[in-house]
Amino acid sequence: MKFKKYISILLLILVTSFTFAQVKFETKVSKKKLGINERLRVDFVMNQDGDNFIPPSFEGFTVVGGPNQSVSNSWINGVRTYKKTYSYFLAPKKRGNFTINQATISIDDETYKTLPVKIAVTAAVDKPKDPNDPNYLASENIHLVTEVSKTNPYLNEAITVIYKLYVAPNTGVSNWREIDSPRYNDFWSQNIEIKGLKEEHGTYKGEDYRFVVLRKTVLYPQKTGKLNIEPLSLDLSVQVPTNRRDIFGSRLMTRVNKTISAGNKTITVKPLPENGKPIDFTGAVGDFNFNVSASKTELDASESLQIKVGVSGKGNLKLFKLPKVSLPSSLEVYEPEHTENVKTNLAGMQGRISDSYTVVPQYKGKYPIPSISFSYFDLKTESYKRLSSNEIVIDVLDGPTNDDNSNSVAINSGKQQVVLSNDQFAFIKTKTNFTPLIQTYFFKTPLFWSALLLPFLAIPLAIAIRKKKTSRDADVYGNKIRKADKLARKYLGNAKKALGKKEAFYIALEKALHNYLKAKLRIEASDLSKDRIVNLLKDKQVEDSVISDFVSIIKNCELARYTPITNVEMQQDYEKAAKTISLIDKQAR
């Protein structure tokens, strides 16, 4: 009996050992039925280590992740357990029934295959069902939101667009960058500089979130009707929690790349009312004050004075024209110098604009400057308002009198009697003197022989020109220099015409520099911050000294409007800009 008992125990041990020695290689899927907008996880699991793993073709699916390899090796009650897994994440291409075909692997010189698995792909479901999918978690925990201050503004009324990135408490974000910036077609736009991103706490759809403000922009619509505000799109790295934990019980994080967009926003812009619109209305919208002043009211002839027409307040200060000054013909008036002292914040433009006229009287006397009026649309009362200045009298104390002019006015004001004479039609000829027409022929004339021989004489000239063109085309470096110089002259043409006129020159110079960068680097005007310009030019392998010169010219354009500048300094800035554009065009890769 004891012998039989030992035999039974030995057989049991042998059977158990054989059972554990059996190779298992199988396919496990996260689900066998899924929506077309969901993801499928496929695991190929084996209980012994093998080589030459060959996955199936995954027909009907796109591999969006994997293969990820994991190994588990443990001892429980003296029994060793081994598991090796190859994981794939699949996205279905279309609806239908599909098969995950066999995978193969070699273990101890034997080839093992998995069994096929049937998968059904249905129409899109409301949301992915896998709560542990990192992409699903990222889409649920990260939100880019566009906040518009007003969706039905008037034409030329300021609105604010703020882009906020909301992040769930258990999620992290790093390495974010803009991949598509809104262009704000049909708007005048101004980005508000944000100095450092500040984390704040708020709610999104009733839940607690952290958020940062990424961008603030002030817009003035320039058209009526439905206008589209393009979305901001970001590419970022997101850290989301997984269902795995470390040895201390804390959840492990995984990183996924995510592209998110704020979505389009549509606003409806109302036209300004026609009822009560003044004839001299030039588009001013906001709340303004109007003032006309003279630097002096008593002076001598040939001395000069300044008459300043200014508007201050809050509104679209840069988007309308100031009223013109009407002066007597005896006062010599020069073109006005336009100045702007305007700041833009989330409330819109605020500050002052003015036109300063230089006036030089020629004769002695008193010259009244009539009242000037300025009209604007008041957003508070939704009505038009008109502001008028007081009459100013310029008293020229000493100088020549305007007697000749007064006499001519008196003479011109009287009526002269028309006197008829008998020879008032004497200029009409009543007799003619005809000459015979001599008919000539073109054939065998000098012009005929010249036209006949000219093509033959042009052949050597054409050959010489062609050789010169071929030689010039072969000169790659020279062509690059000529092209760069031509490009600089093209963009700086308007600035050169405005040399001597400070305001017009620096506006044209700044516009030329921006237009050149837009054409060279293929970027939009809203992207032209100084830091971005420096980074883009460095990416194009432009030397640091050239980049520094370019940025300094842009700063000069911004500062020169508010500081006195001589013609010599303007000429130096122009030459420096031309040289810098030429160098950038030659160095940029």
Which key features would you list for this structure?
single chain; 589 residues; alpha+beta; Immunoglobulin-like; 5 domains; five-stranded antiparallel sheet; 10 helices; 27% helix
Task: Tell me about this structure.
It is built from 10 helices and 30 strands. It is α+β, with helices and mostly antiparallel strands and 589 residues long. The chain folds into 5 domains: 2-128, Immunoglobulins (Immunoglobulin-like, Sandwich), CATH 2.60.40.10; 135-269; 291-396, Immunoglobulin-like (Sandwich), CATH 2.60.40; 444-470, no CATH class; 476-587, Up-down Bundle (Four Helix Bundle (Hemerythrin (Met), subunit A)). Strands 11, 12, 14, 15 and 16 form a 5-stranded antiparallel β-sheet that branches. Strands 21, 23, 24, 25 and 26 form a 5-stranded antiparallel β-sheet that branches. Strand 18 and strand 19 form a beta hairpin. The N and C termini lie far apart (93 Å).
Quick overview:
It contains ten helices and 30 strands. With 589 residues, the chain is an alpha+beta fold. It is extended, with a radius of gyration of 41 Å.
Number of strands: 30
SS-derived structural category: alpha+beta
Cα-atom Rg, whole angstroms?
A: 41 Å
Distance between the termini: 93 Å
What's the shape?
Answer: extended
Question: Could you name the ranges where pLDDT drops below 50 across 5 or more consecutive residues?
Answer: 14-20, 404-420
